[in-house]
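Posting for a labmate who doesn't have an account.
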Amino acid sequence: MREEIRWFPVPRLGPYPDRPRAGPADRAPHLPLRPLWLCRACGRPWPCGTARLLLKVEYAEQRVELAIYLSGLYHEASHDLFRLNPDDGPTPRELFERFVAWGPYRRPAVDPPPDRRAEDPPPERR
Protein backbone atom coordinates (compact mmCIF):
# COMPACT_ATOMS: atom_id res chain seq x y z
CA MET A 1 0.00 0.00 0.00
CA ARG A 2 1.39 3.33 -1.02
CA GLU A 3 1.56 6.00 1.64
CA GLU A 4 0.30 9.36 0.53
CA ILE A 5 2.54 12.32 1.30
CA ARG A 6 0.81 15.56 2.09
CA TRP A 7 2.57 18.73 1.13
CA PHE A 8 1.68 21.71 3.21
CA PRO A 9 2.10 25.17 1.78
CA VAL A 10 5.04 27.10 3.13
CA PRO A 11 3.77 30.12 5.02
CA ARG A 12 5.04 33.23 3.33
CA LEU A 13 2.65 35.98 4.19
CA GLY A 14 4.57 38.11 6.64
CA PRO A 15 3.46 41.41 8.09
CA TYR A 16 2.20 44.15 5.84
CA PRO A 17 4.95 46.79 5.60
CA ASP A 18 2.93 49.79 6.76
CA ARG A 19 5.38 51.20 9.27
CA PRO A 20 6.86 53.58 10.23
CA ARG A 21 3.66 55.56 10.49
CA ALA A 22 5.14 58.68 12.03
CA GLY A 23 6.48 61.41 9.82
CA PRO A 24 5.66 64.77 8.32
CA ALA A 25 2.30 64.82 6.56
CA ASP A 26 3.65 66.83 3.63
CA ARG A 27 6.34 64.26 2.71
CA ALA A 28 6.23 60.76 1.30
CA PRO A 29 6.39 58.09 4.02
CA HIS A 30 9.56 56.04 4.37
CA LEU A 31 7.86 52.75 3.48
CA PRO A 32 9.27 49.94 1.32
CA LEU A 33 8.55 49.67 -2.39
CA ARG A 34 8.00 45.98 -2.98
CA PRO A 35 9.38 43.77 -4.46
CA LEU A 36 12.52 45.92 -4.76
CA TRP A 37 12.58 46.82 -1.05
CA LEU A 38 13.68 50.38 -1.71
CA CYS A 39 12.41 53.35 0.28
CA ARG A 40 9.52 55.13 -1.40
CA ALA A 41 10.69 58.50 -0.07
CA CYS A 42 14.47 58.50 -0.62
CA GLY A 43 15.18 55.50 -2.89
CA ARG A 44 17.71 53.91 -0.54
CA PRO A 45 17.57 50.25 0.48
CA TRP A 46 14.76 49.89 3.01
CA PRO A 47 14.84 50.32 5.95
CA CYS A 48 16.71 53.53 5.29
CA GLY A 49 18.19 55.58 8.11
CA THR A 50 15.06 57.69 8.49
CA ALA A 51 12.80 54.62 8.56
CA ARG A 52 15.01 53.03 11.22
CA LEU A 53 14.86 56.15 13.35
CA LEU A 54 11.08 56.41 12.99
CA LEU A 55 10.65 52.71 13.78
CA LYS A 56 12.76 53.09 16.93
CA VAL A 57 10.56 55.98 18.03
CA GLU A 58 7.30 54.21 17.17
CA TYR A 59 8.33 51.01 18.97
CA ALA A 60 10.26 52.62 21.83
CA GLU A 61 8.30 50.74 24.49
CA GLN A 62 7.63 47.62 22.38
CA ARG A 63 11.00 46.17 21.49
CA VAL A 64 9.80 42.59 21.12
CA GLU A 65 7.05 43.66 18.72
CA LEU A 66 9.62 45.54 16.63
CA ALA A 67 11.82 42.42 16.52
CA ILE A 68 8.89 40.32 15.31
CA TYR A 69 7.88 42.94 12.72
CA LEU A 70 11.43 43.25 11.36
CA SER A 71 11.94 39.49 11.28
CA GLY A 72 8.75 39.04 9.27
CA LEU A 73 9.82 41.70 6.79
CA TYR A 74 13.27 40.08 6.55
CA HIS A 75 11.56 36.86 5.54
CA GLU A 76 9.38 38.64 2.96
CA ALA A 77 12.32 40.59 1.53
CA SER A 78 14.43 37.43 1.28
CA HIS A 79 11.70 35.79 -0.76
CA ASP A 80 11.07 38.82 -3.01
CA LEU A 81 14.70 39.67 -3.68
CA PHE A 82 15.69 36.08 -4.38
CA ARG A 83 12.88 35.75 -6.90
CA LEU A 84 13.96 38.97 -8.63
CA ASN A 85 17.61 38.05 -8.87
CA PRO A 86 18.62 34.59 -7.62
CA ASP A 87 22.20 34.82 -8.92
CA ASP A 88 23.71 37.95 -7.41
CA GLY A 89 21.15 39.35 -5.00
CA PRO A 90 21.97 40.16 -1.39
CA THR A 91 23.09 37.27 0.81
CA PRO A 92 20.98 36.16 3.77
CA ARG A 93 23.58 37.67 6.10
CA GLU A 94 23.41 41.04 4.33
CA LEU A 95 19.62 41.01 4.55
CA PHE A 96 19.72 40.04 8.22
CA GLU A 97 22.05 42.95 8.98
CA ARG A 98 19.86 45.27 6.93
CA PHE A 99 16.52 44.25 8.44
CA VAL A 100 17.08 42.76 11.87
CA ALA A 101 20.56 43.30 13.32
CA TRP A 102 20.17 47.03 13.93
CA GLY A 103 17.02 46.53 16.04
CA PRO A 104 16.87 48.27 19.40
CA TYR A 105 16.06 45.08 21.27
CA ARG A 106 19.64 43.85 21.10
CA ARG A 107 21.43 43.95 24.41
CA PRO A 108 24.81 42.70 25.54
CA ALA A 109 24.78 39.07 26.70
CA VAL A 110 26.13 40.14 30.09
CA ASP A 111 25.34 43.36 31.92
CA PRO A 112 28.44 45.55 32.04
CA PRO A 113 29.98 45.97 35.49
CA PRO A 114 29.11 49.21 37.26
CA ASP A 115 31.50 52.07 36.71
CA ARG A 116 33.59 52.13 39.89
CA ARG A 117 35.08 55.51 39.05
CA ALA A 118 31.68 57.15 39.37
CA GLU A 119 30.98 55.61 42.78
CA ASP A 120 34.27 55.48 44.66
CA PRO A 121 37.63 57.13 44.19
CA PRO A 122 40.32 54.70 43.00
CA PRO A 123 42.43 53.09 45.72
CA GLU A 124 45.73 54.80 46.38
CA ARG A 125 48.90 53.06 45.39
CA ARG A 126 51.61 52.65 47.98
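Reply:
Got it, the C-alpha coordinates are right above this. The chain has a mean pLDDT of 79.
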